[in-house]
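Slide 14.
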Amino acid sequence: PIIPAVFEYNNVYVNHAGQVWDWTGRLLRTQGRPLPLESATMAAQAPEFDAGILAMEPTRNFYHWFVERYSSLAWAFSGEAAALPLVLERNSLAFQDEILTLSAWSGHPFLRVGEAMFLRRAFLTDPSISYLNLWDAVAPLYDTVVKAAFESPARGAGPRLYLSRRDSSARPLENEEELEAALGALGFTCVTFTGMPLIEQVRLMQEARVIVAPHGAGLAHIVAAPPGISVFEMLPSDRLGLSLRFNFARLSRLRGHRHLLWVAPCNPLTWRWQVDLATILPVIERFADTAS
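Slide 15: predicted structure.
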C-alpha cells in the first residue's frame, strides 16, 4: 500500500489554485504555473489563519476531485488534523460542495481562499489514485455519500446503464444517438449527468450492474460503486496520451470491477470519433449477459 505523505509548510501564502509561496514570493508549490500577479499583489492584505488543510483541485475536474483529491484527505480524520479546517476555492464547483455536504466532512470547518490567504501552518497531501489501496482508510469518505444517496428520494434506473456524453462538446461521439437507441433495445437506460444532482448520480451508479460509457469524468463514480460491477468503456485513441486515459481501467482494478476497454480511432485534429455499431453491439450484449 502507498502511505500518504503529509507535507507541512509554515508561515506561507496560498491561493485558489493550490499554489504555496513564502514572504519573498518564492513558490514552494507551483502547480505547473507561475504565481499570478493578482495573488502576489493581494498577499499584502491577505487574511491570516492559524492552520488549514489544502483541498483545492486546480483541474476543477470531477474525476481528479472525487477519486484523487478526496481520497487523499482521509488522513485528516484523526489526531490533530480532525479539528483543522479544509481550505477550498472561493468559487468551488457545485459537485465539490455537494460531495462535502453529503460526506463525512459534513459539519467540518471550511476556509475559502481567493487570490491569497496566509496560513501559519498549511498541510497538504499530493493526490494519487494509489491511496485507494488503503481502502479501509478511505472507505468512510465514500460510504457516507452512498448512505445519503440511499436515504434520499433519489432512485436508480435499473441494472443496465449508459452514461451519455451527447451534451458535451469534448471528444464528441458522432453516432451516439444511434448507439443509445440500440442500447435501449438491449435494456439499457441512457442518462446524462450534466445538471443532475450528485446524490442522484450516486444512486444510479449504486444500482447499476453493467455500465457502458464513452471515456469521461462521469465514470469516476465507479470508485464508490459496489465491487464487481461490469464497466464497458469506449476510448477514442490518441497515440501520445492514450495510456494516460487508462485511469478508469486502473480504478476498476483497484475496486474489484470487471472492465473492458474498447479503443476506437478518432480524428486527431477535431477529436471526433465513431464506433462501428455492427461490431460493437454484439460485444456489449455478450459483456452484459455475462455480468455477475
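Speaker note: The first helix runs from residue 37 to 42.
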